[in-house]
Design brief:
The chain has 141 residues and is an all-alpha fold. It is 84% helix and 0% strand.
């Protein structure tokens, strides 16, 4: 039970609250671009993460992880984390959904892929931000 507390604590709850804000802003933009403006899958989902990441950086830095570090290295770590999580998440989601839902139309597959990618991204991003970007151990160094 102690190991579960290590991964699910008040910081996790704050991260989820920030995620709700990011989801409302970024996902709204992503689905708007994809469904109403017919912008392709990669551009629409990338727009979500560009806008959402800017919001996420500031809210998670100051609210979630209460990190005081001021460095370009931290910003580079954040950007690196976002890019890696994005490529893995959406790179897995699109072919997986295409394989699982072959009978669905391309638009439905695209929407399902973006939803699946968001779920995978959220999990990877949490661990990346907590232990790579805003790690309290890093401040002691």
């Amino acid at each position: 039970m102690k190991s579960l507390k290590k991964y699910c604590d008040f910081t996790t709850i704050k991260f989820l609250l920030v995620g709700i804000v990011n989801t409302l802003v970024g996902t709204g933009l992503m689905f708007l671009l994809y469904n109403f403006f017919s912008i392709n899958y990669w551009v629409s989902s990338a727009a979500n993460y560009i806008v959402g990441s800017i919001v996420s950086y500031f809210l998670n830095k100051y609210f979630t992880f209460q990190n005081k570090e001021k460095s370009w290295k931290q910003i580079v770590r954040f950007i690196t984390n976002i890019i890696i999580c994005y490529v893995i998440s959406y790179g897995i989601a699109k072919p997986a959904v295409r394989f699982l839902f072959t009978e669905m139309g391309e638009k439905v597959q695209g929407n399902l892929s973006m939803l699946a990618g968001m779920g995978i991204f959220m999990i990877l991003n949490y661990f990346g931000q907590r232990w790579f970007v805003f790690s309290k151990k890093r401040e002691v160094l």
